[in-house]
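Input record, target 12 of the design panel.
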């Protein structure tokens, strides 16, 4: 969460401490009146350049109020959506400790979350604040991330009732503020409002108990033009002299600020040097100061006195707590002091200050801040060592967001030069779904890590895990993947639990191919019994789920998916819970239980940001495919929108190609054969990889060829089927062999070779019967339905019955005639949405929803939602 501060009692209090006001702070009645009005509106904007007193104004106004408020001072470390929200939650928790609980787990992901995906949970969290709350976002100009601005704007377009946002910035945010002005939802204060007038200057001088002549007063106003910080510095410089301004006013028009700063801060050699050292730090205290004095000047007991001296000299030293333990400079002062430090002192001293700062912060348990200072000191080795220590704990907690935020501290040129950081980059790429970047990094690191005999075996083992991934998916050398996984498990430390869990995934997957399903299951189950680490267990269960899925053993898949969900819930692991829900959803989908599948996948959807990118995509794709047999067009369109957002935020184009293939699959199932056939070129760039997930574009590719059965297309379909068959045989994949046999039967029926068609259909049904896998027979367009359905009617009446019932919700003859709106309401009821949620989705009132629901109950001859779900759950389409 940015650089950790110095306060002993809390994680990061400095950013959330309202700046105190001094004895000379003015009561600016006119501006206070504008803020009074803003406290009853969604937004208040205070926009002016540095030194205009924005923070002082709002802080002093809050001291006159009996209102609940929280303060959040932003900096560049908050300039990403996840990190901003983490800090925002932390700020509000100063008043409401349980605020934002549902958001916290989402924010552990390193995936770049689209603002649209977070608007509803963010709004929900804000709406649960029990009383009116002013939230001050200070230094909003530090935020350049467009997603943060989109989140705030979209949230306050329909503002939460009890939240009043005060924005303090050097310039207006990139929002269409005219919308808020037109509705009367905003009050604004601009630079001309904040400038001191002559009366303000006189009041300010009086509060400071100073005396200056009228000529001096006029000259100050002429030079500063009422700029508050300039006035303060001029008066400070006079206060330290015998009574006259000791600055050449005639030459100050362009240089007075720096001259005054140098005079005020640097006139005393000892305190001046100390003030420069402190400008190297976002925050400081006397303990840090004493440490620097001891190391650089041989004595270390004067820092408290020196800090007090800086405060007495009115150098904008701002306390960060109510005990005067930690401090920071005003940003403008710090920027100028540090610039002076860089100009006047040699680089060696500046590096030494940062190096000692890194040592001190590290000793006090603030490794992120320490890493930042080690990097600035050029001590890359120490920064990397500290980062490696943190990385394992972040991986263990699956806190990818924190992992990524600290990794971002390292400049790209340093990352390129150090293989340890390249390995961390590979881990992040893995979780982000940018597998090809990870594979490139892994291949490039082989000479430095694997082929280097002096490399620590634990580092080799970490590399081996990621290389096993590459060997399994791309090279498809399953024996090599097995060997690398075994090496990793033998050499990874016990506390590197995430990497050990990953090694189990590719060990189990490779064993399934090289030794057989039974051997793989036995080995992984033995590991599950002998390993007591829940994180490793969750990965072992995940590969068991994969093995059962690939084997087509759906009942066992359902069982182990429930166990995985339990591990996730019992150990507060949203990643494990999300993975279990994903497997449970695709299991029910395979069984043709589309409403059950939809409900599990809707639960997965709420946790999707906590899982790997492949599951994120495949879970939403499966949810989308569930909607055709249940007539869920509204939800289908929502999911496509979410997938488009997801793809836009991914770094590799493969996900984009998968999304286009999914859209073709939807076209085929809706009978849009000509449109689908015209877009088959997208398959040219999709590699053939092991069929381990719920949706595979190569199956769709064959369907597209079969949908327009020219001689050329049938030949191409046959070629693709042969390629897929070789891969499925090699990987012992029974689950997709069912789909392939169905495709082959359709191919031969279309070619007029009914005997071969029947042979393959029998083979498909034989495989499907063992585990009741039905979905491959229900996923075709009407043309395929006619070809396969006639044969099943004669030979396999159970499948025929299912095929005969296959139709969208609104076309089911067992239902009464429903209006279009009633169908939409019914669809959302079956997804367990409340009346309010249905109203929000359909843009109708809750009262109107109740009226449509009442009409539904009468037509369905039921008395409640529960009876609706119970009645329809016995039919295929649900």
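The sequence produced for target 12 reads:
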């Amino acid at each position: 969460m940015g650089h950790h501060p110095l306060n002993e009692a809390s994680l990061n209090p400095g950013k959330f401490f309202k700046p105190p006001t001094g004895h000379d702070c003015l009561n600016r009645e006119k501006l206070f009146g504008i803020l009074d009005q803003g406290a009853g509106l969604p937004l208040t904007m205070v926009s002016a350049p540095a030194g205009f007193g924005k923070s002082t104004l709002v802080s002093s106004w809050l001291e006159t109020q009996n209102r609940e408020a929280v303060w959040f001072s932003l900096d560049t470390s908050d300039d990403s959506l996840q990190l901003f929200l983490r800090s925002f939650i932390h700020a509000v928790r100063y008043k409401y400790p349980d605020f934002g609980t549902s958001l916290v787990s989402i924010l552990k992901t390193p995936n770049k979350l689209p603002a649209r995906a977070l608007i509803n949970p963010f709004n929900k969290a804000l709406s649960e604040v029990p009383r009116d709350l002013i939230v001050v976002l200070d230094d909003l100009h530090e935020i350049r991330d467009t997603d943060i601005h989109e989140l705030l704007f979209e949230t306050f377009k329909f503002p939460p009732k009890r939240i009043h946002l005060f924005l303090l910035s050097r310039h207006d945010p990139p929002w269409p503020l005219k919308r808020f002005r037109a509705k009367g939802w905003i009050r604004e204060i601009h630079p001309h409002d904040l400038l001191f007038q002559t009366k303000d200057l006189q009041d300010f001088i009086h509060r400071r108990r100073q005396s200056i002549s009228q000529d001096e007063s006029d000259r100050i106003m002429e030079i500063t033009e009422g700029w508050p910080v300039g006035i303060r510095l001029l008066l400070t410089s006079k206060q330290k002299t015998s009574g006259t301004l000791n600055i050449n006013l005639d030459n100050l028009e362009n240089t007075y600020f720096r001259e005054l700063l140098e005079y005020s801060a640097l006139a005393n050699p000892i305190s001046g040097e100390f003030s420069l050292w402190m400008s190297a730090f976002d925050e400081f205290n006397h303990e840090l100061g004493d440490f620097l004095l001891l190391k650089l000047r041989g004595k270390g007991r004067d820092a408290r006195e020196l800090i007090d001296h800086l405060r007495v000299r009115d150098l904008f030293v701002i306390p960060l707590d109510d005990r005067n333990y930690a401090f920071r400079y005003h940003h403008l002062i710090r920027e100028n002091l540090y610039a002076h430090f860089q100009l006047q002192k040699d680089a060696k001293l500046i590096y030494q200050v940062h190096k000692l700062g890194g040592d001190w912060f590290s000793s006090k348990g603030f490794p992120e801040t320490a890493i930042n200072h080690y990097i600035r000191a050029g001590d890359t080795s120490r920064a990397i060592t500290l980062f490696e220590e943190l990385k394992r704990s972040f991986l263990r907690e699956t806190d990818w967001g924190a992992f990524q935020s600290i990794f971002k501290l390292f400049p790209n040129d340093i990352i390129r030069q150090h293989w340890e950081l390249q390995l961390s980059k590979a881990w992040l790429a893995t979780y982000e779904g940018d597998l090809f970047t990870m594979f490139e990094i892994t291949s490039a690191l082989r000479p430095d890590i694997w082929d280097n005999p002096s490399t620590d075996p634990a580092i080799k083992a970490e590399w081996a895990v990621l290389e096993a991934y590459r060997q399994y998916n791309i090279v498809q050398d399953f024996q090599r993947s097995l060997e690398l996984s075994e090496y990793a498990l033998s050499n990874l430390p016990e506390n590197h639990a995430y990497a050990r869990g990953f090694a189990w995934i590719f060990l189990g997957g490779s064993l399934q191919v090289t030794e057989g399903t039974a051997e793989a299951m036995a080995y992984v189950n033995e590991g599950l019994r002998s390993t007591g680490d829940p994180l490793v267990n969750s990965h072992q269960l995940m590969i068991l789920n994969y093995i059962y899925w690939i084997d087509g053993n759906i009942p066992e898949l359902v069982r182990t998916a429930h166990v995985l969900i339990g591990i996730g819930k019992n150990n507060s692991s949203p990643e494990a819970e999300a993975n279990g829900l994903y497997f449970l959803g695709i299991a029910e989908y395979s069984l043709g239980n589309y409403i059950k599948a939809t409900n599990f996948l809707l639960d997965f959807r709420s946790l999707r940001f906590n899982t790997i990118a492949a599951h994120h995509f495949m879970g939403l794709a499966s949810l989308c495919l569930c909607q055709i047999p249940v007539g869920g067009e509204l939800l289908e369109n929502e999911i496509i929108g979410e997938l488009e957002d997801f793809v836009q935020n991914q770094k590799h184009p493969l996900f984009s190609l998968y999304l286009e293939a999914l859209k073709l699959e939807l076209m085929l199932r809706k009978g849009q054969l000509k449109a689908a056939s015209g877009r088959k070129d997208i398959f040219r760039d999709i590699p053939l990889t092991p069929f381990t997930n719920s949706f595979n574009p190569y199956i769709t590719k064959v369907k597209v060829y079969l949908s327009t059965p020219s001689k050329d297309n049938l030949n191409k379909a046959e070629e693709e089927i042969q390629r897929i068959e070789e891969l499925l045989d090699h990987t012992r994949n029974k689950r997709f062999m069912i789909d392939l046999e169905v495709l082959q039967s359709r191919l031969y029926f279309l070619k007029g070779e009914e005997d071969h068609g029947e042979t393959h259909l029998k083979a498909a049904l034989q495989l499907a019967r063992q585990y009741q896998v039905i979905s491959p027979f229900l996923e075709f367009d009407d043309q395929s339905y006619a070809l396969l359905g006639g044969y099943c009617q004669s030979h396999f009446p159970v499948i025929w019955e299912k095929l005969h019932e296959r139709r969208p919700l609104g076309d089911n003859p067992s239902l009464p005639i429903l209006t279009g709106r009633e169908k939409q309401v019914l669809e959302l009821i079956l997804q367990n949405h409340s009346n309010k949620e249905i109203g929000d989705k359909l843009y109708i009132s809750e009262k109107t929803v109740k009226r449509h629901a009442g009409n539904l109950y009468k037509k369905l001859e039921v008395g409640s939602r529960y009876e609706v779900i119970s009645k329809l759950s016995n039919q295929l389409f649900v």
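The chain has 45 helices and seven strands.
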